[in-house]
Amino acid sequence: MNKVTILLIGMILSGCGSFVPVQDVSKVDPATMQQAYKVKTFTAESNMSYPEVKHYHGPITAYSCKHMLTDPPASKGDALMQLRLKAVDLGANGIIDITFDLRGTDTWGTNCWETVQASGTAVDF
Whole-model pTM? Predict the structure, then answer.
């Protein structure tokens, strides 16, 4: 094989998935999904006060990514669920100061047709 063929194969294989971590929610076990739905969420824009924070786990970021043409559009709801799953992995029961960043095509940074990024701080109440 010549160098161009090897380079082309490498580029094709590296472009097979998104560059950002996204869990397939359909493959998450039901117990974890139940825990994720119980995570309390508070957006940065909301004027709602949240309970007293007992422990800060730290900042977390998650993505909704439309990678393939057949994937559903990237959405805030999916990005929020991804964020909740990360909070569960950390043992947190809440996320505060959640913000969303809606992005269009970003094939070099995320390898997604469209992306929604959710960020917040994982906490225990």
Answer: 0.79
